[in-house]
Structures are given as C-alpha cells and as structure tokens.
Design goal:
Largest sheet: 5 strands, antiparallel
Number of helices: 1
Strand order of the largest sheet: 5-4-7-8-9
Strand content: 25-35%
CATH topology: minor pseudopilin epsh fold
Number of strands: 9
Order of helices and strands: HEEEEEEEEE
Distance between the termini: 86 Å
CATH architecture: 3-Layer(bab) Sandwich
CATH superfamily: minor pseudopilin epsh domain
Radius of gyration: 27 Å
Structural class: alpha+beta
Number of domains: 1
Length: 151
C-alpha cells in the first residue's frame, strides 16, 4: 500500500545548517566590536570616577590631618598614601591591565606620584586615562582637587 506521498526524515539538511551558521557568524562579527567597545567604555568610566574620588579624598585628608598625601600610580593599582614618617597606604584601587595612566603636570608627562600638600594650593594636573582604543583626560581644580570640565 503506497499513498503517493514521500515521507521525509525529521531534521535539517546540510544546506540549512550552513546557512544558519553563516548568518550567525555575520551577526557575531557585527556585534562583537560593539560589545568590546562597550566593555572598554564601562571600564574607562569606572576608573575615571575612582581616580576623581581618590583625588578628592587625598586633598581632604591632607587638609584635615596636616600630612602630605599622594596618589601613586603603580602597576595595575592606584594607592592613596599618607607620608608621615612611615608611608601608610590608606586606600588601594585595582584596575585592569588594559588601563594606562599618564600624569601631565603642565609640562612633562610621567608616572610619578601626585602629591597633595596640606593647606597649600596644589598644581592642577591632567591625567590621561587610556583603556584599549578609548581614552579620556581628567582635569582637576588646584584648590579643591575636583574634576573640572574645560572646553
């Protein structure tokens, strides 16, 4: 007894599978760079905010305790240090190895510590923060150590 209809096996043909794989690869190739930039952008925003907060803390503590404080740019971490006899690390912020800092004090760029002197005006550095292909520059007010936006 034949019914005149041909039974198909359940499943997908090789052509259908290849077509789905090609479309998936195309979508991934389009979305991957966007996701990578988004992750770098988020890391850059986070560390930039942390540097600004650390600078404000250093300035405030230098004035309150009458002790020189500095921010040290170590490999993969920032340290807020009180310089009173012995160096006392007050706070440490770890960051990914893709983040790089350049401290510009108005003439030269270096990775030297940023000092906060009690009761005195500090220089207003610019800190260039890089994360992968992205970068941003932080500028600080010399009196308050608050970030300022300059046109």
């Amino acid at each position: 007894m034949t019914s005149g209809t041909i039974k198909r096996r359940a499943g997908f043909t090789l052509l259908e599978i290849l077509l789905v794989m090609a479309v998936s690869a195309l979508i991934f190739a389009t979305v991957a760079p966007i996701l990578m930039d988004s992750e770098e952008s988020r890391a850059l925003d986070d560390i930039t905010s942390q540097v600004a907060t650390l600078a404000q803390d250093a300035r405030r503590q230098a004035r309150e305790t009458d002790v020189v404080h500095e921010i040290r740019f170590e490999r993969n971490r920032l340290e807020l240090v009180a310089l009173s006899g012995e160096d006392t690390i007050l706070e440490t912020i770890n960051y990914p190895s893709s983040v790089k800092f350049e401290l510009n004090d108005g003439g030269s760029t270096s990775s030297t510590p940023w000092r906060f002197l009690p009761g005195r005006t500090n220089f207003a550095p610019r800190i260039l923060v890089r994360c992968g292909a992205l970068s941003t520059e932080l500028r600080f007010d010399p009196l308050t150590a608050y970030p300022v936006n300059e046109p």
